[in-house]
Design a protein that fits this description.
The chain is an alpha+beta fold and 457 residues long. It has helices at 45-49, 86-102, 133-143, 154-165, 188-198, 215-224, 238-250, 356-360, 364-387, 391-408, 411-417, 439-447, and strands at 11-17, 21-22, 28-38, 70-77, 108-114, 118-122, 129-130, 172-179, 203-209, 229-232, 254-262, 268-276, 280-281, 287-288, 293-301, 304-313, 322-332, 341-352, 421-425, 430-433. The strands form 4 sheets. Strands 4, 5, 6, 7, 8, 9 and 10 form a 7-stranded mixed β-sheet that branches. Strands 2-18-17-11-15-14 form a 6-stranded mixed β-sheet.
């Protein structure tokens, strides 16, 4: 297992895919922006973060020698419901121990036990431990003593995690949250306030174990904190899932990267969405970044690639005219408050033409992700209609979902849909609602509805 001091920072690239041609009177410009970070294991931190002639003082704290690049807090549900069945709490303890074993030496970490209040399980006293053989063993010993009892107030877990993570100088600050029930012992406003307070301070993966938790609560936590959400229907799968989550967290090398969108005078931003690997609307998360520029948060990065859909509305122009519709940049904040560093950028263009073939052609990437966003939407609408007793509406929406999943090659979502509907014809979206659906299957479809597939090559 690599030591944090040997970690590398990836290089970023931005590629823009669009049909820049508009017909006379056309105003809406769509582009898919693919952001890729590569070379996390081969390119040095200084090479990316200092640049030509820059001083080492500009390297973020976590990339400087002797400072950990990551801090992690694991929040484990210890409410009374975790006793039923008794194996659930044991599986949670074992999963958390497996995650602790996956921590790299030098990473700051802590374990929080969550009920109607948050308990600092390890190392205690509002501190973080530094991962090594001794502290990992101590943490697992503390975990072995965890017992279930009490209610559920997730806001207290998140606020304690935030306080603990604030003690670390590491730029990568991450939480892992496990719950098996609904957030019943506080108001929804308490949780919303905590999420608003923690947003931008750390990222968080959230998992629901069993089938007694609320999908919208768990996915809402992950969405607000730029993490992943999933169901672990069988508690026996927790250890593998926790290990994978921690490995992914340990692979992150750069924190707080923002997608910066600059637009000329007269250009209106309609939306900015992440569309791969999951659909996440970032439009409302904009923070102003100077004249006609705004930043959209993307969280932490390792070696990976993500796709974003940018749609802007430009002023009308005559045939033959062209303009820069938007400039998309990836920026890294300067921890000392100086000018953020631009890691890479791409341009979105608009060209007006009377060539009908050129102006009516839809870029394949734009078409694909428009369909994927619709897929996520109609699954949610179909499941909501089914729960409310609108079976005709549910059949129509889930049939459309089957059609979209088949057309885009989203085999995983198609498989999940087949557990909720009987597929008569995937091409036309002809389906019948199943009379009986396992609760775990319906919750899995809802939780994973926003997962997308990349454009077929």
């Amino acid at each position: 297992m690599a030591n944090f001091a040997k970690s590398r920072v990836p290089q970023f690239s931005v590629d823009v895919y669009q049909n820049e041609y508009l017909p006379e009177g056309g105003r809406d410009v769509n582009a898919i922006v693919t952001v890729t970070s590569t070379g996390g294991g081969t390119s040095g931190a200084a090479a990316l973060l200092t640049g030509a002639g820059a001083s080492p003082a500009h390297i973020p704290a976590g990339q400087q020698p002797g400072v950990p690049n990551a801090a992690v807090v694991i929040m484990v549900d210890c409410s009374g419901s975790m006793e039923y069945p008794p194996t659930k709490m044991r599986n949670a303890r074992e999963a958390t121990a497996a995650a602790v074993d996956t921590l790299r030496d030098g990473v700051d970490f802590a374990v929080v036990g969550g009920t109607h209040q948050a308990k600092d399980v390890y190392p205690g006293n509002g501190r973080l431990a530094t991962a090594n053989a001794v502290t990992r063993a101590q943490a697992k010993e503390a975990l072995s003593k965890l017992n279930a009892g009490g209610g559920t107030a997730i806001s207290t877990w998140l606020r304690l995690a935030d306080q603990l993570l604030a003690e670390s100088d590491a730029p990568i600050r991450h939480g892992i949250l496990l719950t098996d029930g609904r957030n019943e012992h506080e108001s929804p406003r308490h949780l919303l306030n905590a999420l608003e307070a923690c947003a931008g301070r750390f990222t968080c993966d959230a998992r629901g174990v069993g089938t007694d938790w609320d999908v919208k609560e768990v996915t809402g936590i992950a969405s607000a904190l730029l993490g992943t959400a999933d169901i672990v229907a069988d508690p026996r799968g927790l250890a593998a899932d926790f290990t994978q989550m921690m490995e992914n967290a340990m692979g992150k090398e750069v924190a707080d990267v923002a997608l910066r969108l600059w637009t000329p005078v007269g250009v209106e931003i309609k939306f900015v969405k992440q569309v791969a690997p999951v659909v996440e609307d970032l439009t409302g998360r904009r923070t102003e970044a100077g004249p006609r520029a705004g930043d959209y948060p993307t969280g932490s990065w390792g070696d990976e690639s993500r796709d974003y859909h940018v749609c802007v509305r430009v002023p009308e122009a005559g045939i033959g005219q062209e303009m820069l519709a938007a400039r998309v940049s990836l920026v890294l904040p300067d921890p000392s408050g100086g000018t953020p560093q631009t890691l890479s950028q791409g341009l979105v263009r608009a060209v007006w033409t009377d060539d009908m073939v050129a102006s009516t052609s839809i870029n394949p990437q734009v078409a694909h992700y428009t369909g994927q966003a619709e897929l996520a939407q109609v699954i949610q609408q179909g499941l909501n209609a089914r729960k409310s007793g609108d079976f005709d509406g549910a059949t129509a929406k889930l049939g459309r979902a089957v059609q979209l999943a088949a057309a885009s090659g989203n085999a995983d979502t198609a498989k999940l849909l087949s557990k909720v509907v009987d597929v008569v014809d995937a091409t036309t979206g002809t389906v019948r609602l199943k009379a009986k659906v396992a609760e775990a299957d319906e919750m899995t479809l809802e939780t994973r509805s926003t997962k997308t597939v990349r454009v077929k090559k």
